[in-house]
Model the fold of this input.
Amino acid sequence: MADINPLAPAMPLAIDPEIGGPPTAPIGGVPPRAGRPAVRFGRLGPTLVLILCAIFFIAPLLTLARYALQNVPTIRLGASTMFDKWSLSGLTKAFSDKQFGPTLRLSLKLALGTVTLTLALLLPTAIWVHMRLPRMRAVIEFVTVLPYVIPAIALVAGIVVVKPHARWFLDSDYSLVPFYVILALPFTYRSIDAGLRSIDLKTLVDASRSLGAGWGTTLRRALVPNLRTAIISSAFLTTAVVLGEFTIASTLLKNTLPTFQATYVKREPQGGYGLNLLALVATTGLFALLTVATRKRGSRKVKSALTDPAMAETMAFAGITRSQQGR
Amino acid sequence: MTGLLYISVRKTFGPTVALESLDLDVREGELISLLGPSGCGKTTALRIAAGFEFADSGAVTVGGADITRKPAHKRNMGMVFQSYSLFPNLSVNMNVDFGLRTRKIAAPERRKRVADMLELVQLGGMGERYPHQLSGGQQQRVALARALAIRPSVLLLDEPLSALDAKVRLALRDEIRRIQTELGITTLLVTHDQEEALGIADRVGVMSSGRLEQLAAPSEIYSRPASAFVARFVGSMNELAGTVRGPDAVDVGGQTIMTPSALTRNTGDSVVFLGRPEDVAVRDSDQPGLAGTVTATTFQGASTVVGVRLDVLDTLIHAHLNSSTASHLRAGQRVSVEIDGARAVLESAGAASPVPVDALA
Done:
């Protein structure tokens, strides 16, 4: 359902024009080498895989879109009705539901709070680990993956036990923030870690400090600008987690966007699925926008999240997870 | 007075002793290079001066003021690193400006200093470029400008040339020396490249396993090494087994070589005789000396390296000869070798070689 998949928009972009070209017409004036046909057939394989992957990702989305946005009975959704009665009425109905506005606002606030807390905790910690405890990196990486390995329901069981004693805290809507920080940790830590690995951290810190900058200035002027992609992608992944988390929010009786979606989809399936589709499109759109925005002018070495292999790895990891979580 | 002084500085990392007890006086305006194999403690010494590491005991002073416990950003040190350390997100101008901004210097003064510094390292007009648009040599020039812009009391250079290719390295080495002399700035350079250390410095400190083995002018390091380690590490050495025959004589393969280095030895001691290849003369086989056979000649332009296998000790020694002198020598030719012991060093036979094999190459 709401499998917000950050990998999906990367797929079409990942098709290298050179690989994608028909094997009979090599690009760039490279003469076809008759003696080595293996090279040319070798290109066909990857292209085929990419096309299949694209279909695998896009076909379900297309069917979802048809179900949500076409006012045609499900039984009659076929090739012949492809262009019939497209309409946003299901969506507008969902928007006008009196619960939609408040739950969306709460989820966005939670996302903002989670991103802020995550960065405030994670950035200094990850930098410290890289600088001073490089041997601990494997251990910390393992620890940060735990929230992914341990099912959310186990965390919920713990919360239920603690709940009577911590009402003062759990009654607030924002009590979800720490849980979301933990849930997002496998993705956020990896993203920041990948960013730190891609820069010469120690030298940049030493250089900055020898020029008279304290830790604060060093972080602000020498590190954060060079970790821009990592920070933005970790913020994006955190947002994706917050906008998709149902179990804990539901247990703690909070009215977030995902809990609203879950109830609404039962009441109004068409509008509900439309909402899920919109959430997916909006998050990927936001991500694409941020990717473009992070490509700074004049400095082509500043990696965008889509071209940085370490970042792509994190994204793929997150993508798999999101689709597994799909409720 | 902005000399840099190490007083009995000791530093350990767990069980590893990085610096045993370093005493080093970098005088005002002087350039000292610390030379040694990796792990000898030279980089640790530099990082302690920079404030990136702190001494376990001992003290570091600059211009008489104790800075031992001062954090890095409060010391006034200009540092150039081995790897490219420019901030990739900042233009050349902003990189050079970085230290000036942290010092809250007024904008017009900053602009002037940035321009002056880039002029000094001959990169005027490159200010708007970004680090990735510069070559390695240019990046290191910017790093130097950035370090000098803050008008540091001491300039610290951590293998600044080792990432560059040979030609650029040589040009930048001369450039660093020119700027250093021009500004009269106290400078400590760390390197594992002996040519670099000897070529640039007023004095060279040779380090080994956390100890300063010798601190002297480059020519003295080369011609009068204080220890067998220094002798082996700086330049190349022929090693021959010998026996001390008197206060100024050593017997090598039946030939007596006059050498002042025998003074501290007892007659009859077994020693290893270490002599420079330049101090080996190769003559026709009817001349007096150690008989041997030429194994190979390697033409190197002005000089030629001649390998000779000695009959008596079955040892291979090398001679650096003038190419014109060596032109008649062919592999397989019988020759007579004479060794000048004036600059030789003796080591007790059986002493373990402290130099790793790769450092001898």
Confidence is low (pLDDT under 50) at residues 352-361 of chain B.
